[in-house]
Design a protein that fits this description.
about 475 residues; alpha+beta; 6-stranded antiparallel β-sheet; 6-stranded mixed β-sheet; 11 helices; about 25% strand
């Protein structure tokens, strides 16, 4: 029995080692697939980075550089500076960089544009200038010129004493943005939204979501946004939520939200990209083969395990015939305890008779011991196993019996123990007539507390030893 148990453990260990090896190899393959997917996704996001660089970062850096120019400072500082010279300067910048430029002088209270137009900066009529002048921000981005909507980048200009001189910046027609965005959306399948700190959509790939007649759409009103935030907890309700790497379902397709901070403008860019999972055929084939091998090995293992179990059962004598019934092998009881396959609540008890099994003995003494042993077995069977299928009675030595009580409460087990003692006392009266003194030790253990077979057997030995 122990040999088969050892074989069981070795087969199980071999299966576990093989399975772990396949899982490790499979994880490496999955990591490779995910890395490949991540590289693909990052590659697909690179056009969005180029978009930000070309249409936001580049104009900003150009404006910041111009704001430090001594020529610009002189133009803004002198209210009588020749207007045509300013226009010529701005025209030169427009030709060089391909963007519209403007100067807004605080001393002259006039805005000069590279197209030659000008605007008097009158408080109450020109809101942007006085609004951004009061703010601490050096750079601001805004939508203006509502009759022909433009996107503006405004950079403050200061003299050597850090005194405010005015603004310099760039502007671009919203129509040209929409043309660029449409091309981008057609080529890459992305949707994107530039959102300010309060959740207003400043620029979007969907023309219907861009500002119109001084009205701004809000990011919080978009269905995909509502789906993404779900129960997500974030700051104030008018503050855009952090949604980087969130998945949403739009028209039965999966999309990944990527979020970028445009820190100079205090904006957020939400990029809605289709999820592209396109693992290589090699990785798919390897993963499929790994799964197939795991299934095949599992089937083989179960087959071998069942065969070994049947062989162990066939080679183990589990019952001994007696005149009153069948005694099972104590090895069967020990195996049930060892593998914890008993039905709870469960108890195990052991009986040891001192005068049986001592050698050398005469022929008459040996016959007498066998008769007493058989009588004890019959008594135990009549009290226990023959009356209750939950109880197993096994014999391990000539003078030792083991009982397993399954699905038996402590009260029920205690009653059976009393019945055993009564039966042994009755048997003792009979054997005394044969001048044989029946001395025995009987003890029980609750298997809820100790389920290791070695601990159970050791506990019985200790108890029997102390009773001597």
């Amino acid at each position: 029995m122990r040999a088969f148990a050892s074989l069981h453990r070795r087969i199980l260990l071999l299966f576990i080692i093989t399975l772990v090896s396949l899982i490790v190899h499979g994880s490496f393959s999955m990591d490779s697939m995910l890395s490949e997917q991540s590289r693909t996704q990052q590659k697909n996001l690179s056009p969005a980075i180029d978009l930000i660089t070309e249409h936001l970062t580049r104009p900003l850096h150009i404006s910041q550089t111009i704001a430090k120019s001594d020529d610009v400072r002189q133009m803004l500082l002198d209210p009588d500076f020749d207007k045509q010279l300013k226009i010529n300067y701005l025209n030169k910048l427009e030709s060089q960089f391909g963007m519209d430029f403007f100067l807004a002088s605080d001393s002259a209270k006039v805005q000069i544009n590279s197209d030659g137009s000008s605007l008097d900066l009158v408080e109450g009529e020109v809101n942007w200038y006085f609004k951004y002048k009061q703010l601490d921000d050096i750079v601001n981005a805004d939508i203006g010129k509502w009759d022909d909507i433009h996107f503006y980048i405004d950079v403050k200009v200061f003299n050597e004493n850090n005194e405010f001189l005015g603004f310099v910046g760039t502007s671009k027609r919203l129509k040209s943005f929409l043309e660029t965005f449409e091309t981008f959306r057609t080529n890459h399948g992305f949707e994107f939204f530039f959102v300010n700190a309060t959740g207003e959509i400043m620029l979007a790939s969907d023309p219907n979501l861009n500002p119109y007649q001084r009205q701004f759409q809000r990011i919080q009103e978009q269905d995909w946004y509502k789906q993404a935030i779900g129960t997500l907890v974030f700051g104030a309700q008018n503050t855009p939520a952090p949604l980087d790497n969130q998945l949403v379902s739009v028209e039965e397709s999966e999309y990944l939200i990527s979020q970028f901070s445009v820190k100079n403008f205090d904006w957020e860019l939400y990029l809605i990209a289709p999820v592209m999972f396109n693992p290589s055929p090699f990785n798919l084939a390897y993963l499929s083969l790994s799964v197939l091998i795991v299934v095949v090995i599992s089937v083989i293992f179960l087959g071998i395990y069942q065969s070994v179990s049947r062989l162990a059962d066939a080679s183990n004598v589990t019952k001994v015939n007696t005149p009153s019934g069948f005694l099972c092998s104590d090895e069967l009881i020990k195996s049930i305890i060892q593998y914890s396959t008993f039905k709870r609540p469960a108890h195990v008890a052991m009986l040891r008779v001192a005068q049986i099994g001592h050698f050398p003995a005469t022929h008459e003494e040996l016959v007498e011991q066998i008769e007493i042993s058989s009588a004890i077995s019959n008594t135990l069977l009549n009290i226990l196993a023959n009356n209750d299928e939950r109880i197993m009675v096994g014999k391990s030595h000539q003078n030792q019996w083991m009982f397993l009580f399954q699905e038996t409460t402590y009260v029920e087990m205690n009653k059976y123990m009393k019945d055993i003692r009564h039966g042994l006392e009755t048997l003792q009266l009979d054997v005394k007539k044969q001048s044989f003194s029946l001395e025995y030790q009987l003890s029980e253990i609750d298997l809820e507390n100790e389920t290791e077979l070695s601990e159970v057997l050791f506990e019985f030995e200790q108890r029997f030893k102390h009773k001597h």
